[in-house]
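Q: C-alpha cells for this one, please.
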Amino acid sequence: MADVVELICYPVKGCAGTSTNDALLTPAGLAHDRSFMVISEDGTFRTQRRQPRLALIRPAISTDGSRLTLDSADGTGRFGALRLDVTTSAPRRDVDLFGTPFQGIDQGDEAATWLSEFLGTPSRLVRVPPEHDRIADGLTPGPTGYADSSAVHLLSRASLALLNQRMAERGAPMLPMNRFRPNIVVDSHDGHGHGSGDRSAPPHAEDHARRITIGDAELGFAKLAVRCAVTLVEQEAGARRGPEPLRTLASYRRAAGGGVVFGAKFSVIRPGKLSVGDEMVVREWGDAGLRNS
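A: Here is the predicted structure, written as C-alpha cells:
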C-alpha cells in the first residue's frame, strides 16, 4: 500500500522533531520519543498550545539516551547549545499531564535555567522514569511515555495533499507536514515512481488500518488523532498563524465522537527496527467513524 518516507522522533515533548533514516520502535514508540518534558514550577506540562516558542528548541539525544542537547532556532544568537548528561537517579518530581499525575526525573538547574530564559517563564526539564507505567487507551491500548496519548502517530502524504487542496480552494496557503508532528509519514508506492496505479493509497487510508506491519514491527490502531491548537503554530517561527488548518478540517474531518481528526494513533504490538523505505502492509481494516468527509 505505502512506504515509509519519514521517521521523526521528538525527544522533548512539544519541542522540534529530529528526522532519521532508521529508528528502533520500542513498546512505548520510537526510541526516546517524548521521553523528556518541560514543566512549570508546579509540575504542569508545557505545550505549544500556550508556549509556541517550544517549537524553536531543537533537541538531540544520543543513541543510548545518556546525552541530551538543547539548541535554539530563534535566530537571535542569545542562546547557545546546552549539553546535558541525562540522569536517571535524581529525585522524582510530581508532574501533571492532562490532569493525570505522573512522576518525572528532574534534569537539574542548568537545564531549568536555560529553558526558563528561553521561554520567559520558570520551567524545568524532567525525564520519564524507568518505572513509568502509563497505558494509553484506544482500540488497541498500549504503553506510552509523555506523548499526548498513544505511542505512535502515523500520517500519509496523500492526506496532507488533500487538506492542502481544500485549503487552496479557500484561498489559504499550503502547510508542511511538520504542522502535524507525526512519527511515521507514509506515501503510496506511486509516490516513488514504482508500482501501478491500483496500488496507490487514497487520502486517509491510515484511518481504516487496524493492524499494520512495517519492517519487523507490528502496530495496532488505537484512535484517530484529534487535532488541537498546536496545528496553528508555524513550527519554523514558533508562533501562531491564523485559523488554519482547523477551519478547513472542521469542514470535512469531524469525528463521530467530536473534534476534528487528521492522522491516526497506534500502539506497538511488536517492537522492531523501522527504516525509511520500508513497506507498510495493512493486515486488517476497519471503519473510520467520521460524521463528514
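A few notes: Residues 191-198 have pLDDT under 50 and may be disordered. Helices lie at 109-119, 157-169, 246-252.
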